[in-house]
Design brief:
It comes from Rhynchophorus ferrugineus. The chain is of the alpha/beta class. The chain is built from 9 helices and 7 strands, in the order αααβαβαββαβαααββ. It has a 7-stranded mixed sheet with strand order 3-2-1-4-5-7-6, with helices on both faces. Strand 6 and strand 7 form a beta hairpin. It is globular, with a radius of gyration of 17 Å. The termini are far apart. Bound molecules: S-adenosylmethionine. The site of S-adenosylmethionine has 20 residues, from helix 1 and helix 4.
Length: 248
């Protein structure tokens, strides 16, 4: 095909992804707003309200980037006065984490509620049964081996722990999917070029969305990793989906 990244070998994917996010780290938050017309904020808010953290939630936010999910978690536990909660943000890219740390400081977060740890979703630097909640938002599709991501999620969760994933998915309506594809392939790389002065990372973004398994297929993969009560919910007609499961 004429889309460059599709020919990249599996073994090279991780390195490519690392570069992509190294290049976009500074512009990442602005570009999210531009490309999604701000809607990613609503999806993330909804994601955390679906998790509805209780007292004693020990969350691991994987591919946590610049902290969007972790910060919403912190806001939630403050608003609903949840006690004894903590979030660990992990990401393979230290540039993204550094942007997150600066944001967290500016937001005056209690340093005791959050920590940042560089790490690969496919080989998490944590012991078994460490957390009781696991989130990954717009990160799963960037990983090379989804099955490894899922088995690692299962390993680090305690029994009873919940897995939740927010990710781009596929629209149910084929005409809308076609329109959405036009927007993605034609408009997004152009905006990347115009605003962030980069084309390739945004072309990659669009392709990685296209290659990620659809709702049902992904649900099966989560079940194969051992999770129970696996379910998904489409948001915005299936542009994104939330998958959830429990380690029982
Ligand atoms: N979760 C954040 C959000 O919703 O704004 C960031 C999402 S960003 C689109 C994807 C993140 O996945 C990047 O920060 C990237 O560095 C990270 N990432 C890619 N591959 C990874 C891996 N194998 N392990 C951990 N993080 C990874």
């Amino acid at each position: 095909t004429h889309f460059g990244f599709e020919t990249v070998k599996e073994s090279e994917k991780q390195e490519k992804v690392l570069k992509v996010f190294e290049n976009v780290a500074e512009d990442y938050d602005i570009m999210n707003d531009v490309m999604s017309l701000g809607i990613h904020r609503l999806w993330k808010d909804y994601f955390i309200s679906s998790l509805s953290p209780t007292n004693n939630t020990k969350l691991l936010d994987v591919a946590g980037g610049t902290g969007d999910i972790a910060f919403r978690f912190i806001d939630y536990v403050k608003t609903y006065q949840r006690q004894n909660c903590h979030v660990t943000v992990t990401d393979i890219n230290s540039h993204m984490l550094n942007v997150g740390k600066i944001r967290s400081k500016a937001l005056n977060h209690d340093p005791g509620i959050i920590n940042w740890q560089e790490g690969n979703a496919e080989e998490l630097p944590f012991k078994d049964n460490t957390f009781n909640a696991y989130t990954i938002a717009f990160g799963a599709r960037n990983c090379t081996h989804i099955d490894k991501v899922l088995s690692e999620a299962y390993r680090v969760l305690q029994p009873g722990g919940r897995f939740m994933c927010l990710e781009f998915s596929q629209l149910e309506n084929t005409t809308l999917q076609w329109l959405y594809d036009q927007y993605s392939f034609q408009v997004i790389p152009v905006m990347g070029q115009l605003i962030a002065k980069q084309w390739k990372p945004y072309q990659y973004l669009v392709e990685s969305i296209r290659q990620f398994p659809n709702q049902e297929k992904y649900k099966n993969m989560i079940e194969e990793a051992g999770f129970r009560q696996v379910a998904f919910e489409n948001l915005t007609l299936g542009i994104v989906a939330i998958h959830s499961g429990f380690k029982l």
